[in-house]
Amino acid sequence: MGDARDWPSALHAVDPGCNSTLIDALRSELSQRPGDYVDVGTNIGVVAATMAAHLAPTGHVFAFEPSPETMRLAASTIALNEAENVTLFNAAASDADGSLVFHATPGNSAIASARRHAFGLLNEWQQVTVPTVRLDTLHADGELDGVSLVKIDVEGLELSVLRGALEFIAAVRPTVVYEYTPLAAGDHGWTQEDSIALLGRAGEFEFTALAEDDGQVLPFPSPTGISAR
User: Which CATH number is 142's domain given?
Assistant: First the structure.
Protein backbone atom coordinates (compact mmCIF):
# COMPACT_ATOMS: atom_id res chain seq x y z
CA MET A 1 0.00 0.00 0.00
CA GLY A 2 1.49 3.32 -1.02
CA ASP A 3 0.71 7.00 -1.41
CA ALA A 4 1.16 8.42 -4.90
CA ARG A 5 2.52 11.66 -3.38
CA ASP A 6 5.32 9.72 -1.68
CA TRP A 7 8.55 9.07 -3.62
CA PRO A 8 9.25 5.51 -2.28
CA SER A 9 5.64 4.52 -2.97
CA ALA A 10 5.86 5.81 -6.55
CA LEU A 11 9.21 4.08 -7.01
CA HIS A 12 7.79 0.72 -5.96
CA ALA A 13 4.87 1.24 -8.32
CA VAL A 14 7.05 1.83 -11.38
CA ASP A 15 9.93 -0.46 -10.33
CA PRO A 16 8.63 -3.32 -8.16
CA GLY A 17 12.12 -4.82 -8.00
CA CYS A 18 13.82 -1.71 -6.59
CA ASN A 19 14.57 -3.49 -3.29
CA SER A 20 15.53 -6.79 -4.90
CA THR A 21 19.24 -6.61 -4.03
CA LEU A 22 18.51 -6.24 -0.32
CA ILE A 23 15.59 -8.68 -0.34
CA ASP A 24 17.59 -11.37 -2.15
CA ALA A 25 20.43 -11.01 0.36
CA LEU A 26 18.07 -11.21 3.34
CA ARG A 27 16.23 -14.24 1.97
CA SER A 28 19.52 -15.98 1.25
CA GLU A 29 20.71 -15.36 4.80
CA LEU A 30 17.44 -16.61 6.31
CA SER A 31 17.64 -19.73 4.14
CA GLN A 32 21.11 -20.44 5.53
CA ARG A 33 20.27 -19.42 9.10
CA PRO A 34 16.56 -20.09 9.68
CA GLY A 35 14.93 -18.04 12.40
CA ASP A 36 12.84 -14.96 13.08
CA TYR A 37 13.56 -11.58 11.50
CA VAL A 38 13.75 -8.04 12.95
CA ASP A 39 13.07 -5.15 10.54
CA VAL A 40 14.06 -1.77 12.03
CA GLY A 41 12.93 1.02 9.70
CA THR A 42 10.03 -0.74 8.01
CA ASN A 43 8.86 2.22 5.91
CA ILE A 44 5.80 1.17 3.85
CA GLY A 45 6.29 -2.50 4.69
CA VAL A 46 7.54 -4.02 1.43
CA VAL A 47 10.60 -5.77 2.88
CA ALA A 48 8.79 -6.84 6.06
CA ALA A 49 5.88 -8.37 4.13
CA THR A 50 8.27 -10.13 1.75
CA MET A 51 10.26 -11.62 4.62
CA ALA A 52 7.01 -12.66 6.32
CA ALA A 53 6.02 -14.61 3.20
CA HIS A 54 9.46 -16.23 3.12
CA LEU A 55 9.25 -17.26 6.79
CA ALA A 56 5.61 -18.41 6.87
CA PRO A 57 4.13 -20.37 8.49
CA THR A 58 6.61 -20.90 11.33
CA GLY A 59 8.88 -17.83 11.35
CA HIS A 60 7.99 -14.40 12.70
CA VAL A 61 8.78 -10.79 11.73
CA PHE A 62 9.19 -7.98 14.28
CA ALA A 63 8.87 -4.67 12.41
CA PHE A 64 9.49 -1.11 13.69
CA GLU A 65 8.25 2.10 12.03
CA PRO A 66 8.09 5.33 14.09
CA SER A 67 6.27 7.66 11.66
CA PRO A 68 2.51 7.29 12.36
CA GLU A 69 1.49 7.96 8.76
CA THR A 70 4.08 5.60 7.29
CA MET A 71 3.24 2.97 9.90
CA ARG A 72 -0.37 3.00 8.67
CA LEU A 73 0.85 2.29 5.14
CA ALA A 74 3.06 -0.51 6.48
CA ALA A 75 0.12 -2.00 8.39
CA SER A 76 -1.95 -1.89 5.19
CA THR A 77 0.83 -3.56 3.18
CA ILE A 78 1.11 -6.30 5.78
CA ALA A 79 -2.66 -6.80 5.92
CA LEU A 80 -3.07 -6.85 2.12
CA ASN A 81 -0.43 -9.58 1.97
CA GLU A 82 -2.25 -11.51 4.72
CA ALA A 83 0.99 -11.65 6.70
CA GLU A 84 -0.29 -12.89 10.04
CA ASN A 85 3.24 -13.61 11.30
CA VAL A 86 4.21 -9.91 11.73
CA THR A 87 4.28 -7.83 14.91
CA LEU A 88 4.38 -4.15 13.91
CA PHE A 89 5.61 -1.60 16.46
CA ASN A 90 4.76 2.08 15.97
CA ALA A 91 8.05 2.99 17.65
CA ALA A 92 11.68 3.81 16.94
CA ALA A 93 14.20 1.23 18.07
CA SER A 94 16.92 3.18 19.88
CA ASP A 95 19.30 3.17 22.85
CA ALA A 96 16.71 4.31 25.41
CA ASP A 97 13.12 3.45 26.29
CA GLY A 98 11.02 6.60 26.15
CA SER A 99 10.43 9.01 23.28
CA LEU A 100 12.19 11.26 20.79
CA VAL A 101 11.32 14.08 18.43
CA PHE A 102 11.12 12.49 14.98
CA HIS A 103 11.30 14.36 11.69
CA ALA A 104 8.74 13.03 9.24
CA THR A 105 9.21 13.91 5.58
CA PRO A 106 6.00 14.18 3.54
CA GLY A 107 6.93 13.40 -0.04
CA ASN A 108 9.82 11.06 0.78
CA SER A 109 9.04 8.72 3.67
CA ALA A 110 12.23 6.70 3.12
CA ILE A 111 14.45 9.42 4.59
CA ALA A 112 12.40 10.42 7.63
CA SER A 113 14.85 10.60 10.50
CA ALA A 114 15.64 11.63 14.03
CA ARG A 115 17.61 14.50 12.44
CA ARG A 116 17.05 16.86 9.53
CA HIS A 117 19.56 15.76 6.91
CA ALA A 118 20.59 17.75 3.85
CA PHE A 119 18.98 15.25 1.48
CA GLY A 120 17.26 16.31 -1.73
CA LEU A 121 13.76 15.33 -2.90
CA LEU A 122 12.11 16.81 0.19
CA ASN A 123 9.07 19.07 0.28
CA GLU A 124 9.02 19.81 3.99
CA TRP A 125 9.84 18.48 7.46
CA GLN A 126 7.27 17.76 10.14
CA GLN A 127 8.11 17.10 13.78
CA VAL A 128 6.29 14.40 15.74
CA THR A 129 7.11 12.84 19.10
CA VAL A 130 7.35 9.06 18.83
CA PRO A 131 7.95 6.28 21.37
CA THR A 132 11.35 4.60 21.53
CA VAL A 133 12.25 1.09 22.66
CA ARG A 134 15.50 -0.82 23.08
CA LEU A 135 15.73 -4.24 21.47
CA ASP A 136 17.47 -5.24 24.71
CA THR A 137 14.28 -4.41 26.61
CA LEU A 138 12.12 -6.54 24.32
CA HIS A 139 14.58 -9.41 24.61
CA ALA A 140 14.65 -9.12 28.41
CA ASP A 141 10.84 -9.29 28.33
CA GLY A 142 11.01 -12.68 26.60
CA GLU A 143 10.80 -11.66 22.95
CA LEU A 144 13.30 -11.99 20.08
CA ASP A 145 14.91 -15.23 21.33
CA GLY A 146 14.34 -16.93 17.97
CA VAL A 147 15.79 -14.11 15.85
CA SER A 148 18.57 -15.03 13.39
CA LEU A 149 18.60 -11.84 11.27
CA VAL A 150 18.31 -8.11 12.07
CA LYS A 151 18.01 -5.38 9.41
CA ILE A 152 18.50 -1.73 10.46
CA ASP A 153 17.83 1.13 8.03
CA VAL A 154 17.09 4.31 9.97
CA GLU A 155 18.87 7.16 8.17
CA GLY A 156 21.76 7.64 10.55
CA LEU A 157 20.31 6.36 13.82
CA GLU A 158 21.80 2.89 13.23
CA LEU A 159 24.45 3.24 15.95
CA SER A 160 21.81 4.17 18.53
CA VAL A 161 19.79 1.08 17.58
CA LEU A 162 22.90 -1.06 18.01
CA ARG A 163 23.71 0.54 21.39
CA GLY A 164 20.27 -0.48 22.60
CA ALA A 165 20.66 -4.03 21.30
CA LEU A 166 24.10 -5.20 22.46
CA GLU A 167 22.83 -7.56 25.18
CA PHE A 168 20.29 -9.05 22.77
CA ILE A 169 22.91 -9.45 20.03
CA ALA A 170 25.43 -11.01 22.43
CA ALA A 171 22.82 -13.51 23.67
CA VAL A 172 21.18 -14.45 20.36
CA ARG A 173 24.08 -13.92 17.91
CA PRO A 174 22.00 -12.89 14.86
CA THR A 175 23.36 -11.72 11.55
CA VAL A 176 23.13 -7.91 11.63
CA VAL A 177 22.57 -5.93 8.43
CA TYR A 178 22.69 -2.15 8.84
CA GLU A 179 22.81 0.77 6.45
CA TYR A 180 25.83 3.02 6.37
CA THR A 181 25.24 6.32 4.57
CA PRO A 182 28.17 8.72 5.11
CA LEU A 183 26.01 11.87 5.21
CA ALA A 184 23.44 10.51 7.65
CA ALA A 185 26.01 8.76 9.83
CA GLY A 186 28.13 11.90 9.93
CA ASP A 187 25.14 13.99 11.01
CA HIS A 188 24.73 11.59 13.94
CA GLY A 189 28.45 11.69 14.71
CA TRP A 190 29.63 8.17 13.87
CA THR A 191 31.81 6.37 11.34
CA GLN A 192 32.15 2.89 9.86
CA GLU A 193 34.89 2.15 12.39
CA ASP A 194 32.65 3.23 15.28
CA SER A 195 30.01 0.68 14.31
CA ILE A 196 32.60 -2.09 14.08
CA ALA A 197 34.03 -1.21 17.50
CA LEU A 198 30.56 -1.09 19.06
CA LEU A 199 29.49 -4.48 17.72
CA GLY A 200 32.80 -5.87 18.94
CA ARG A 201 31.45 -5.41 22.46
CA ALA A 202 28.78 -8.03 21.68
CA GLY A 203 31.20 -10.63 20.30
CA GLU A 204 33.37 -11.42 17.31
CA PHE A 205 31.93 -10.54 13.90
CA GLU A 206 33.05 -10.73 10.29
CA PHE A 207 32.19 -7.52 8.39
CA THR A 208 31.39 -7.11 4.69
CA ALA A 209 29.44 -4.50 2.72
CA LEU A 210 26.68 -5.12 0.19
CA ALA A 211 26.61 -2.64 -2.69
CA GLU A 212 23.00 -1.53 -3.02
CA ASP A 213 23.11 -1.10 -6.80
CA ASP A 214 24.40 -4.51 -7.92
CA GLY A 215 24.69 -6.66 -4.78
CA GLN A 216 28.47 -6.87 -4.99
CA VAL A 217 30.10 -7.91 -1.72
CA LEU A 218 32.77 -5.36 -0.74
CA PRO A 219 35.17 -4.82 2.16
CA PHE A 220 33.92 -3.01 5.24
CA PRO A 221 35.07 -0.45 6.25
CA SER A 222 34.65 0.62 2.65
CA PRO A 223 37.77 1.95 0.91
CA THR A 224 37.86 5.69 0.27
CA GLY A 225 35.65 6.64 -2.66
CA ILE A 226 33.38 3.58 -2.44
CA SER A 227 29.89 4.06 -1.01
CA ALA A 228 28.21 0.86 0.15
CA ARG A 229 25.49 -0.25 2.49
Answer: 3.40.50.150
